[in-house]
Design goal:
By secondary structure, the chain is an alpha+beta fold. It has helices spanning about 5-20, 60-70, 75-80, 85-90, 95-105, 105-115, 140-150, 150-155, 200-230, 240-250, 255-265, 270-280, 340-350, 385-390, 420-435; strands at about 1-5, 20-25, 30, 45-50, 55-60, 120-125, 130-135, 155-160, 165, 180, 285, 290-295, 295-300, 310, 325-330, 335-340, 355-360, 370-380, 395-405, 410-420, 440-445.
Length: about 450
């Protein structure tokens, strides 16, 4: 390590060294002309010394050495503790990026995202106009786009490297000329987080996705809340300022938007909100059923596939007559499951606020629901026709059928039918079971 007084002395010293010892090709780095993002400056060279050994030499001024040893605070000290110029401030871009990351990420995420920025490895690439851009090693066109401008990064739809179209996860190399293709309505993808390396790119992508998710949850939370409080003749948009203030105090939120987002995330049970607004915990009576249901009950108007907010779960395929429960799925709606569905037992134990006791709406008698049957029979010609005939006698539609033969010689018929309710399904199963050579009939689900 050689410490000199001026930048001019750095280059004069370099010339002197190269005149005495032979430099190793490709091992010279000029970090004075192109400082690292952490403000490190020096001339690095490797020469062939006595005995043929490689010797690495670093040449710096006193100021450069001080910054390398003590960090960026030394730069400010060299300014005498005075305000920094715009040029100085531009040198701290990497630090501003880190500060942005602090706002959005946890400590572990922050360490991971800026580790590359603080690494000694960097690459230098060019814009089509010849401007030099410094990036962390392993950077991609998306990192480059965000280094140009946040909005350029957000609207990136493609990239050219050295005049050729390349995938957005392409690793850039020193000297590459990068051109970003943008589209007005293009948006950042969550997949970009799998390959970007710069803290600025990671931070801006996460910020955008967080805002997008919040907007979606806000909309869903309002719709979900509307569905519940309409029992007392209200809509979310019609709540008075006094009612909103009381809700914020009761559930400890600073803004009503934050409160609605929490509803959309399933963090607050809409039933609790309903009880609070109504001011009592009395029983509600369903207009669609003779039985009384509690405040935690809601009549889900399932019409076979979905309605405004609910869908029947594909893991257990419930039909009217089955005991059901609704599970609030973050930002998506209410998923209707069979009460004994194994997939929801853990959720009901650990996050009971996401559970909603649902009942079927029996108003629409024309609604039909998919049911899946597995029929085990002896393998003989014409048996599928006999089974189909038995089903048709109940005026039941067959939507699909698949038959295969097992190694033991038994035939397995997987069949999809449309039924009105559990009683209808039981009638169909009874008739199929009465067909000669049918050994068993069991209800199953689509994905089993």
């Amino acid at each position: 390590r050689i410490i000199v007084n001026t930048v001019k002395d750095c280059y004069l010293t370099l010339g002197l060294i190269h005149s005495i010892w032979s430099p190793v090709p490709g091992r010279f780095k000029d970090y004075i002309s192109l400082p690292k993002s952490n403000m490190y400056q020096a001339l690095h060279t490797t020469v062939v010394g006595s005995g043929g050994k490689f010797v690495e030499i670093q040449i710096k001024t006193k100021k450069m050495h001080k910054i390398a040893e003590e960090g960026i605070a030394a730069h400010w000290r060299y300014k005498g503790g005075k305000y920094l110029t715009d040029k100085d401030l531009n040198s701290f871009t990497w630090l501003r990026n880190i500060l942005e990351s602090v706002k959005e990420n946890s400590s572990k995420e922050l360490i991971s995202s800026v580790k590359g920025d603080l690494s000694n490895e960097e690459i230098f690439v060019f814009t089509p106009k010849g401007d030099l851009i410094k990036l962390p090693f392993g950077a991609t066109p998306v990192d480059f786009a965000y280094a140009i401008h946040t909005q350029v990064g957000h609207k990136t739809s493609g990239a050219k490297v050295n005049g050729k179209l390349v995938p957005l996860d392409t690793k850039l190399k020193n000297g590459d000329v990068v051109e970003i293709i943008t589209a007005k309505y293009h948006k950042p993808s969550r997949d970009w987080l799998n390959f970007v390396v710069s803290s600025k790119a990671k931070t801006n992508i996460k910020q955008y996705l967080t805002k997008l998710e919040r907007k979606r949850l806000l909309k869903f939370g309002e719709r979900l809340l509307d569905k519940f409080i309409r029992k007392i003749g209200k809509k979310t948009s019609e709540l008075t300022e006094e009612e909103r203030k009381k809700l914020l105090e009761r559930f400890s939120f600073k803004s009503f938007d934050d409160f609605v987002v929490a509803v959309g995330e399933g963090k607050i049970s809409p039933n609790k909100i309903l009880r609070f607004l109504r001011g009592d915990t009395s029983k509600l009576k369903s207009s669609n059923s003779d039985k009384s249901i509690s405040d935690k009950d809601v009549v889900i108007e399932v019409d076979g596939i979905s309605n405004l907010l609910s869908t029947t779960a594909k893991c257990c395929c419930p039909i009217p007559g089955d005991e059901i429960v609704g599970i609030i799925v973050k930002g998506k709606g209410i998923s209707i499951h069979h009460k004994k569905c194994q997939n929801i037992q853990k959720i009901l134990e650990t996050e009971p606020e996401r559970g909603i006791n649902a009942v079927w709406n029996t108003k629409n008698h024309n609604s039909v629901y998919p049911a899946y049957l597995r029929i085990i029979t002896k393998d003989k010609p014409g048996l599928l026709a006999e089974v189909s005939s038995a089903i048709a006698s109940t005026k039941t539609n067959i939507s699909g059928a698949n038959i295969r033969t097992r190694r033991d010689g038994k035939a397995v018929i997987d069949m999809k039918i449309s039924v009105k309710d559990l009683d209808h399904l039981r009638k169909v199963i009874k008739l199929i079971s009465s067909v000669k050579d049918v050994e068993s009939v069991s209800r199953m689900c689509k994905n089993k």
